[in-house]
């Protein structure tokens, strides 16, 4: 049986993480050893394009107080959580794919030795176009995101990079190949 891994996907806002994860989820929907974790976010369910679980602040606080998050962080005025169900999935031999935070990566690496970081990269000009096209941020917020985008350190650990400058099929294929590397089709134990 393949070794279970935690694929921690990160990248600047607008780099296409959600699109890549959606593509990979569709391509691997029948694979029983790879599961995709939902994020719990204090954002409406129909905002942002991400398949997430929407919580208000009180619900988030209750889950946090109940110890139901394996990971949690705040970014850009929102709160994000990853449910403890990922620990069960990993223990059963399943690899888990999640949309993480660049700032939280160091802490996640301390808690999950099987973590495989995956950085989604995109050229600055394309990133600017994508941020403007989605219309969620003001011009000032876009400039802050663009300034913040290149600030990233891998903490002396190898990181898998996926370029997402072209069509989704090309970058999506690279992500699927990475997720499948070393996997078998057997069910999680």
Short summary:
The protein has helices at residues 17-27, 57-65, 85-91, 105-111, 124-134, 139-148, 168-180, and strands spanning 6-11, 34-36, 39-41, 53-54, 69-75, 78-83, 95-99, 115-121, 160-163.
Fold blueprint:
Layout: E1 6-11, H1 17-27, E2 34-36, E3 39-41, E4 53-54, H2 57-65, E5 69-75, E6 78-83, H3 85-91, E7 95-99, H4 105-111, E8 115-121, H5 124-134, H6 139-148, E9 160-163, H7 168-180
Parallel strand pairs: 1-7, 1-8, 2-7, 3-4, 8-9
Antiparallel strand pairs: 3-6, 5-6
Helix pairs in contact: 1-7, 5-6
Tell me what the structure shows.
The chain is of the alpha/beta class and 189 residues long. 36% of the residues lie in helices and 23% in strands. The chain has a five-stranded parallel β-sheet with strand order 2-7-1-8-9, with helices on both faces. A four-stranded mixed β-sheet has the order 4-3-6-5.
């Amino acid at each position: 049986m393949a070794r279970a891994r935690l694929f921690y996907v990160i990248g600047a806002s607008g780099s296409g993480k959600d699109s890549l994860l959606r593509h990979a989820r569709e391509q691997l929907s029948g694979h029983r050893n790879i599961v995709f974790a939902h994020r719990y976010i204090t954002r409406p369910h129909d905002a942002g394009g991400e398949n997430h679980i929407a919580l208000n602040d009180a619900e988030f606080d209750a889950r946090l107080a109940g110890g139901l998050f394996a990971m949690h962080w705040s970014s850009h005025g929102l709160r994000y959580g990853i449910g403890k169900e990922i620990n069960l999935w990993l223990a059963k031999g399943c690899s888990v794919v999640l949309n993480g935070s660049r700032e939280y990566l160091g802490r996640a690496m301390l808690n999950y030795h099987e973590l495989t970081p995956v950085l989604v990269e995109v050229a600055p000009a394309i990133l600017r176009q994508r941020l403007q096209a989605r219309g969620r941020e003001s011009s000032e917020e876009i400039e802050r995101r663009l300034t913040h985008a290149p600030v990233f350190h891998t903490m002396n650990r190898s990181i898998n990079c996926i370029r997402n400058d072209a069509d989704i099929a090309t970058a999506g294929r690279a992500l699927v190949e990475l997720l499948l590397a070393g996997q078998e089709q057997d069910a999680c134990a």
